[in-house]
Amino acid sequence: MPHMRPTLSKGFLLPEFVRSSTAPARLPTFHTCVGANEELLTPQWYEEHVVSVDVGHKTLSTASGETIHYQTLIIATGAQVLKLEEFRVSGSEAGNICYLRDLADANRLVNVIRSCTSGSAVVIGGGYLAMECAASLVSNKMDVTMVFPEAHCSEYLRFFTEHGFFEKIRITGTCYVVVPRLFTPKIATYYEDYYQSRGVKFIRGTIPSSFEFDSNGKVTAVNLRDGNRIPADMVVVGIGIGPNTSLFNGQFTMEKGGIKVNGKFQTSDSSVYAVGDVAVFPIDLYGRIHRLEHVDSARKSAKHAIAAILEPDKTGQFEYLPLFYSKAFAFFWRFYGDNAGEAVHFGDYSGTTFGAYWINNGRLVGSFLEGGTEQEFEAIANATRIKPAVDDPADVGRQGSSFALNVSEKTKPQTPRIEGETCSLVLEPTVYAWHATAGVVLAASVSAFAYWYGRRRRRW
Ligand SMILES: Cc1cc2nc3c(=O)[nH]c(=O)nc-3n(C[C@H](O)[C@H](O)[C@H](O)COP(=O)(O)OP(=O)(O)OC[C@H]3O[C@@H](n4cnc5c(N)ncnc54)[C@H](O)[C@@H]3O)c2cc1C
């Protein structure tokens, strides 16, 4: 079933739904572009998988043995979680070790939380997903310890790089690269202090070396490389993802662990496009090609690829302002642009609204804002897109969000909203609005696009 992944680490794990077996959270059903004329595709439809691709003959083969011919193919196969085994730690199969990528993982996580009420949870990883999971576990009255190799949460994965882990990692033949994270130590410290006030313990600068198990194969403790041992009733692993490229190995140019595309999302084979988490595309602001793992880029890349296919003459190069966001406890932040250059902090770091600008080569290239108004979020997006010259970074820091508001007001460009951010998570019996995104809707639809055309129109 297509579903909103961001919801799975947020609203889906709220205690009222985790505790209730009679009114569990459930995701809304929704139409995708393949469901024409109000047709809702069945779960079985989505279980049909492509098992091989022959680009030379322009065919796909499905698990049921069907061969589908295409004229144009869009690859939107997304990503899969990185398993601990990639770091030479075994045990991922244990009943109380959880990963989180899809609805089945989320349902399993809920069941594991239920099975160890008020127990100890170890969260491995320090990225935004791990932070969201830790917040959800605390809200479910678990005793939470986070373990990550960096000095701070959501910081650059320096430890892994220095120790050479990432250089050697291979899943299905694809080499992974380190993804830089965006919190500065000051921003990270703010969130860590709050998490600690809610009871979360942090163990930094190390990673698990092994697990201890009981006679039922359940983890009872996590042993760390620094010699520490943490008793655990459950473990949640959020150490990153790797793009699903194995079907396409050797058929297209790959780079940075993903499928390399041009500014119209065309791969090295002009009849094949790649979008979403799997695509490595040119980002002007970065001045390089890059792979992103966020719904906004998944949705917009899919939209642009469709336009490039349907109206090639009217569609130019993709001009994208990267947007990342996250939500945990009552926090909600957005980041636009690039975190290159000097970071200038602004706002009230003892309060609830603060941020940072990144100034590179005398220009604003990135903006982070926690707790802003919709107008402020739009302003930092506009200002980052404009890349105004900054002569005095300290002054920009003193102005804070007023700087972005002024720049934005003077130029008044159009900032599209993050479509779908107000999509609903349908809850029974009441309906609440949750923070979620529709990006996945479109991206998931697109992964089925070639399949649908293949079934209905054997030739394009
Ligand atoms: C728990 C969680 C929370 C998140 N929170 C946020 C957030 O707060 N903000 C944010 O910006 N991003 C968030 N993300 C990231 C975001 O969900 C992804 O960036 C987005 O889903 C990527 O979309 P995609 O379509 O490229 O890939 P996916 O969503 O991974 O979709 C790929 C689809 O392809 C299908 N597929 C794969 N292989 C095959 C095959 N061989 N045959 C047929 N189908 C196949 C898969 O089953 C899947 O349906 C979150 C992700 C998770 C897991």
Outline:
By secondary structure, this protein is of the alpha+beta class. It has a five-stranded parallel beta sheet with strand order 6-15-7-8-11, covered by helices on one side.
Can you put this structure into words, describing what you see?
InterPro entries: FAD-oxidoreductase/Apoptosis (IPR050446), FAD/NAD-bd_sf (IPR036188), FAD/NAD-binding_dom (IPR023753), FAD/NAD-linked_Rdtase_dimer_sf (IPR016156), MDHAR3-like_C (IPR048618). The chain crosses the membrane at residues 432-454. Belongs to the FAD-dependent oxidoreductase family. This is monodehydroascorbate reductase (NADH). The protein has 460 residues and is α+β, with helices and mostly antiparallel strands. The chain folds into three domains: 31-78 and 244-321 and 419-456, FAD/NAD(P)-binding domain (3-Layer(bba) Sandwich), CATH 3.50.50.60; 81-242, FAD/NAD(P)-binding domain, CATH 3.50.50; 323-410, 2-Layer Sandwich (Enolase-like, domain 1), CATH 3.30.390.30. Helices cover 27% and strands 25% of the residues. Strand 17 and strand 18 form a beta hairpin. Helix 9 crosses helix 13 (439-447) and helix 10 crosses helix 12 (401-411). The chain starts with a helix and ends with a helix. The model is unreliable at 156-180 and 419-460 (pLDDT under 50). Bound molecules: flavin-adenine dinucleotide. Flavin-adenine dinucleotide is lined by residues 5-6, 8-9, 49-50, 76-79, 100-101, 129, 244, 247, 276-278, 293-296, 298, 324-326, 440, 443-444, 447.
